[in-house]
Write a structure and sequence with these properties.
- There is one protein chain.
- This protein is mainly α and 115 residues long.
- It has one domain.
- Helices cover 76% and strands 0% of the residues.
- Helix 3 packs across helix 5.
């Protein structure tokens, strides 16, 4: 089901969720993250929101930069929604720390095209 919402708003949602993850993980080390279910759940929820926004961007058929793995981002959300206790917490950490900076930059650039 496609949304009539302006795609710009979905991109802004992605950036807000990335910022929330950055704020959550500020000065947090991997071992502290893995031992704290509240942190893991907070980051996982923001990743779900990112996944949902990406789903809507894909449905909107707007031109998205091909260097980002848009389908993989959407698929991560499906895994988070359905795997529950089978989620690899270290993978969540790696996505947050290694993959999101590129997505953040890409989304900031996309926003400029909407202006």
């Amino acid at each position: 089901m496609s949304s009539n919402r302006n795609p710009r708003l979905w991109v802004e949602d992605i950036l807000v969720s990335i910022q929330e993850i950055e704020d959550t993980l500020n000065e947090i080390e991997l071992n502290e993250f893995l031992g704290n279910h509240t942190l893991v759940n907070a980051v996982s929820f923001d990743l779900l929101k990112i996944s949902e926004a990406v789903k809507h961007l894909l449905e909107a058929n707007i031109e998205l930069p091909s260097h980002e793995p848009w389908q993989d981002i959407y698929n991560l959300g499906n895994r988070l929604r359905h795997a529950y206790f089978g989620i690899d917490q270290e993978r969540i950490w790696l996505v947050a720390k290694q993959d999101l900076p590129s997505l953040k930059n890409t989304c900031q650039n996309i926003l400029q095209t909407f202006s």
